[in-house]
Amino acid sequence: MTPDEATAVATIQRWLEGFNSRDAEVQVDTFNFPHVRFASGNFRTIEDGDAMRRQNETGTQRLKDEGWGYTTLESIEPVQSGPNKVHVAVHYARRRADGAVYNEFDSLWIVTNQDGHWGVQFRSSYLDNQ
User: Domains in the chain: how many in total?
Assistant: First the structure.
């Protein structure tokens, strides 16, 4: 694994820690903006950290409503990389508080280096309900 690939993987792992603890500041720090997500046939752009914080608030309630306890990273693999950009294939599992898996999905994450800051710039997910 190249140093850039290792940094991209660590960035995603740190994001997941923030996601599971519902820490919007960690999530904001692990993204580059504008951030684009493609899921359920739709593109959504998160323009900046403030928009990410607002989305985190509504997302927390949606997760609680579906019975979410935490998310695990089942696999992570850099599949392409070049200067300042790494494409990473990931497989996530959403779990209930007791550890039971209720949803699994694949995603492609693009992590970029903008002015020395590595952050997730784009996600394409097979999660249908988001």
Answer: 1
pLDDT in tens, 12-61: 999 999 999 999 999 999 999 999 999 888 899 999 999 999 988 888 99
Q: How confident is the model at residue 129 (pLDDT cuts 50, 70, 90)?
A: low
Please tell me the total number of residues recorded for the chain in this structure: 130
What average pLDDT does the chain have?
Answer: 94
Q: How far apart are the first and last CA of the chain?
A: 31
Record the pTM. Answer: 0.92
Residue 9 CA to residue 78 CA, distance in Å, equals 7
Three-state DSSP class for 61?
helix
Q: CB atoms < 10 A from the CB of 12, how many?
A: 21
CATH of the domain at 48: 3.10.450.50
- Give me 108's structure tokens: 């492609």
Residue 130 lies in a domain: no
* Number of other residues whose CB lies within 10 A of the CB of residue 69: 15
Within 10 angstroms of residue 84's Cβ, the number of other Cβ atoms is 12
